[in-house]
Amino acid sequence: MTNNVYGLGKKKGRGWSGLLYLLFLLVLACVAMGYATQNTAVLYGHHKALGPTAYEQFYWPWMIFNWVKIVQPSEYLDRIISTSLIIFVAPQILVLGLVALFSGKPKGVDDIHGTAHWAEKKEIKKAGLLEGSGVYVGGWQDKKVLRYLRHNGPEHIMAFAPTRSGKGVGLVLPTLLSWEGSTIVLDIKGENWALTSGWRKAQGHKVMKFDPTDTTGSSARYNPLSEIRLGGPHAIPDAQNIASMIVDPDGKGLRDYWNKAAFSFLGGTILHCLIYFRINAGTHATLNDLSLMLADENREMSELFEEMLNEDHVAQLEELFGEEMDHDSKVAIRKFIAAAAREMLNKADAELSGVVSTAVANMALYRDPVVSRSTSGCDFRITDLMNSEQPVSLYLVIRPSDIDRLRPLVRLILNIVLRRLTEEMEFSNGAVKAGYKHRLLLMLDEFTSLGKMEIFERALAFMAGYGIKAYIIVQDLTQLQSAYGKEESIMSNCHLRMAYAPNKIETAQVLSKMTGEATVVQRKTSISGTRAGRLSRANVSVSEAKRALLTPDECMRLPGAEKDHNGMITKSGDMLIFPAGFAPIYGKQILFFLDPKFLERSKIPAPDKSDKLNEQIEETPAPNEPAIDLDAEMEELEEGTVYEDEEY
């Protein structure tokens, strides 16, 4: 069977046996000639007639051929030449005999069922994992040296790591203590902020902690409604995107009538709320403002929709933006708001109440005074993440007890990030031109805690071209498929995949298939003979069998990290690394606290307060609105606590 009938179609190198045999003959010839030459020289006493020596009393081996023409034949000379011929021929007979003996035995084909193997150093280097820059994806034991494996390409990364397996100390912390670009960190428990923000700030980064439940004033504030570009053609799609995330907080889709109807009117209501507060209060509306507008106990909902229908939004937008905003965009916003209001006014009272109640129920989170304060202003803008003068590190800190409650807000922020930062792509000289100052790393540990994010699943296919690199960590495949379904495309869009010892057989089976199958050659010898023990015949047969490079049960038995009696990791375990297009790597976990450099960086104290990028995001007030004082105290209104764009 020829080499290109199966496998990867790579031609195998020619055998070295022929070249080795030629080299063997050359060595034998030199030895035989040297023997004949030196002994002949001794026989004639190194006479001057023999010619010059090569070194002291040593002659060139081939000189014997010249001497036999000029010296007298003798019995001693014939004996020397005969011995040299034996030296040249005898080893050849021995070698050829051994080759004939062993070549007659069946060998089998060692790649017919598969060529899976663990990557060697040359392959790992070719995969670009030994270059010493980028995110950390694990380690590789090179004899007695543990080499760090890092990936710096634009491609995305996924890790399967069960809880308490060492993913934080082995993947997340080493990466955050070395990544030079901007980053968004999904930081459940706040551990990453505590151990990495100090070093990142020391490197000149702007570090911000967005903790919606913070009551100390150390957290940054972020108002998603400030990302709506009211003064241009993007206002309507921006408002619709936010409306979609509000009425579908868990990413299950707008499946029922009430959610669809709520989405239909909420976009227009958001734009009306933004214009209303800019005109009447001189402030930027917040999600709390929107929630209280929809749940105002002092007026009927129909009054709000009548206001939306009859308000001259074109004139108000003219007052706010003047000629900076084109007239068509003003009219489009006016029609959009009026259509939403008319649609609601055409509904029966019970139906209208049900639709509004659906929207109001999904905004209950923003009526929490603490969350309201965290969303009362904007200390940064999404575009700052990649275009600020310094790299920006944004930590989304969520306490485990608040994950379910705060999920809608975190999803909303990430939705805006993915939409806003993947809008425009520049080209120059036939190639993509980087339209950003800093690459952005999305470090998403416990990724599935956010629920299904369709925008994220779609964006994975193209966001690398915009300088955004995703680092996704999930506990197992079942958890991922539970959120995104069995036909999910998250895993297939990740160029590099890693795995610690899995706890579920489904994950182990997939990992086993990913390692591939190898061919195992089995030799069987059958011996026949008499009862007296005299052998009459021995038969040797060869068969090829396939075997997974790593079986599912072997995957589940990967040595994990060793822990002390307090449950603290003391020694790293093994792991699997799968770079696309290369053989799998049998790797070793890394532990940041065993590296003096990482340990020193992690000891730099975290900042007491989050940085703010006020100079980049402060909006120019309209002619009739006062400048916003971000340092003013919060005011309490009679109908409820409404937080404006001031600090708490």
UniProtKB/TrEMBL annotation:
Parts of the chain that traverse the membrane: 18-36, 80-102, 261-279
Biased composition (Basic and acidic residues): 604-615
Membrane association type: Multi-pass membrane protein
Sorted UniProt keywords: Cell membrane, Membrane, Transmembrane, Transmembrane helix
Principal location: membrane
UniProt-annotated stretches for the region Disordered: 604-628
Subcellular location: Cell membrane
Any Gene Ontology CC annotation: plasma membrane
Highest rank taxon of the organism: Bacteria
InterPro entries per the UniProt record, alphabetical: P-loop_NTPase (IPR027417), T4SS-coupling_protein (IPR051539), TraG/VirD4 (IPR003688)
Record-stated family: Belongs to the VirD4/TraG family.
Protein name as annotated: TRAG family protein
Organism placement in taxonomy: Bacteria, Pseudomonadati, Thermodesulfobacteriota, Desulfovibrionia, Desulfovibrionales
